[in-house]
Design goal:
Layout: E1 4-14, E2 19-27, E3 30-35, E4 40-45, E5 50-53, E6 55-60, H1 76-85, E7 88-96, H2 103-114, E8 121-122, E9 125-127, H3 133-145, E10 150-154, H4 164-177, E11 180-184, H5 188-200, H6 207-212, H7 215-232, E12 236-238, H8 244-255, E13 260-264, H9 267-270, H10 297-309, E14 314-315, H11 354-364, H12 370-384, E15 402-412, E16 431-441, E17 444-448, E18 451-452
Parallel strand pairs: 1-4, 1-5, 6-7, 7-8, 7-9, 9-10, 10-11, 11-12, 12-13, 13-14
Antiparallel strand pairs: 1-2, 2-3, 5-15, 15-16, 16-17, 17-18
Helix pairs in contact: 3-4, 4-7, 7-8
The structure holds N-(aminocarbonyl)-beta-alanine and zinc ion (ZN) (3 copies).
One zinc ion (ZN) binds near residues 59, 61, 318 and 320.
Length: about 475
């Protein structure tokens, strides 16, 4: 047996199933041994640290164009640097199809933006905004076979929304090709109706974004998406679930044996609609505009219960960064946004703070176990999105994607310390206990103590079929 390149010595190895003290040995970028008293060319002392499978953030927006020309605050370089500093080794951004554009051209576009610039491994989900006969009949099946095995569809946003017939058409192709569909479930017409009404009443501050994107509209669309998936017999993922009402629809479906998976995000446990008020119903509130919006403390409690009981499989950031100040006439605080919340770009940053927030609010405060933390942030995303067992676990043969985590280090989240391209964090001042001190991608450091390495060593990952297709029923094992 050839010598190990690297040994991570004396840490507590944590997987979705267990934790135990062991050395982890790395050779050729992979985990080659897990055991006692391993020796290698290089040693990292992990005494007192947790050794976690690298974070996999399965919902990230980088370098996406917007309909009004607003430029996203992160490209693939800055976004993945920020991800690495936050303890992630893989991120799954979107390749967004502009209507009229061929899907293949879209994917090539995103490869040009990403290739050679990424600090974590990456793989694209496709956003289908124009399911033409050419896209459904030829491009999509070919792309799934090339390893683009998941796509997102939208039930709202003028430039992305699909009607019910189009949703069903996409679902049918997904079933045939065994691709996993992620659904943005918010009812477009209800949101438009509420927006018009609020604007007519002069209620145009960012706060009213939260009322226009009512939880009832999310609940209705969640049920509609589930029903369509049931008609086609397709597993789906409801992404960025914000609160109790859509959760009840997901639980209703699960109780009937439907293959509905669910994702939630930091904003739904760490923010509420009150944050959208800003200082005094002013434009500071725009810093919290995302869709679905943060809800109330009752929904936060429901989300925690869902993170514990397995209603949620995934905890992703939905990192979608827009600067608050400019440049020029864009950004969250732009002149047009001041006329109505309708024009505030939707989305908030969070790829770097996802793991610390869930660890601190969840594990450190005793709301979820370490195993649940790893399942939600690494193992389940790998399994659902066709990356397991290369990614998402600590096992011999897996990529040596490891995050060394100090469970007792207390920090305050500060914009000044973050590596994203955004000019603010919605979590400014939040105290967290538990912090990533070293992120290793295939055995090589990509971040140390919150500072990313200069060299981008990430690669593109073609993906296999989701485990959602492997089993009958709901699929992923429920938490113990
Ligand atoms: O407001 C959000 N979440 N923007 C990002 C796009 C999306 O819908 O995920
Ligand atoms: Zn969405
Ligand atoms: Zn599930
Ligand atoms: Zn998103």
């Amino acid at each position: 047996m050839t010598a190990l390149d690297l040994v991570i010595r004396g840490g507590t190895v944590v997987t979705a199933a267990d934790s135990y003290r062991a050395d982890v040995g790395v050779r050729g970028g992979r985990i080659a041994a897990i055991g006692d008293a391993l020796t290698g060319a290089e040693t990292i002392d992990a005494d007192g640290l947790l050794v976690l499978p690298g974070g996999i953030d399965a919902h990230v927006h980088l370098d996406q164009p917007t309909s009004d020309g607003t430029v996203m605050a992160d490209d693939f370089a800055s976004g993945t640097r920020s991800a690495a500093a936050g303890g992630n080794t893989t991120v799954l951004p979107f390749a967004l199809q502009i209507r009229g554009q061929s899907l293949r051209a879209c994917v090539e576009d995103y490869h040009r933006k990403a290739d050679g610039r990424c600090h974590t491994d990456v793989s694209f989900h496709l956003i289908i905004s124009d399911p033409s006969p050419q896209v459904l009949g030829q491009e999509l099946p070919a792309l799934v076979r090339d390893g683009y095995t998941s796509f997102k569809v939208f039930m709202t946003y003028d430039d992305l929304v699909l009607n019910d017939a189009q949703l069903l058409d996409v679902f049918e192709v997904a079933r045939r090709e065994r691709a996993l569909v992620m659904v943005h479930a918010e009812g477009h017409d209800a949101i438009k109706h509420l927006t018009r009404r609020l604007e007519a009443e002069g209620r145009t501050a960012p706060y009213y974004h939260g009322q226009a994107h009512a939880q009832i509209a999310e609940r209705e669309a969640t049920h509609r998406a589930i029903s369509h998936a049931q008609l086609i017999d397709l597993p789906i993922v409801i992404v960025h679930v914000s609160g109790r009402e859509p959760m009840e629809q997901i639980q209703w479906a699960r109780a009937r044996g439907l293959k509905v998976h669910a994702e939630t995000c930091p904003q739904y446990i760490a923010l509420t609609a009150d944050d959208l008020r800003g200082l005094n119903m002013d434009f500071e509130g725009a810093k919290y505009v995302c869709s679905p919006p943060p809800r109330d403390t009752d929904s936060q409690a429901a989300i925690w219960q869902g993170l514990r009981d397995g209603t949620f499989d995934l905890f992703s950031s939905d990192h979608c960064p827009f600067r608050f100040e400019g440049p020029a006439d864009t950004g969250k605080n732009n002149p047009r946004a001041r006329t109505s919340f309708r024009w505030v770009p939707n989305g908030i940053p969070g790829v770097e703070t996802r793991l610390p927030i869930l660890f601190s609010e969840g594990v450190s405060k005793g709301r979820i176990t370490l195993q649940r933390f790893v399942a939600l942030t690494s193992t389940n995303p790998a399994r659902l999105y066709g990356l397991y067992p290369q990614k998402g676990s600590i096992a011999v043969g897996a990529d040596a994607d490891l995050t060394l985590w100090n469970p007792t280090l207390t920090r305050r989240i500060r914009q000044a310390d973050l590596n994203h391209g955004c000019d603010y964090t919605p979590y400014e001042g939040l105290e967290v206990t538990g912090w990533p001190v070293r992120t290793l991608l295939r055995g090589r450091a990509i971040a140390l103590d919150g500072v990313p390495m200069a060299e981008p060593t990430g690669t593109y990952l073609p993906r296999g079929t989701s485990e959602a297709f492997a089993q009958a029923g709901h699929g992923l094992a429920p938490p113990p």
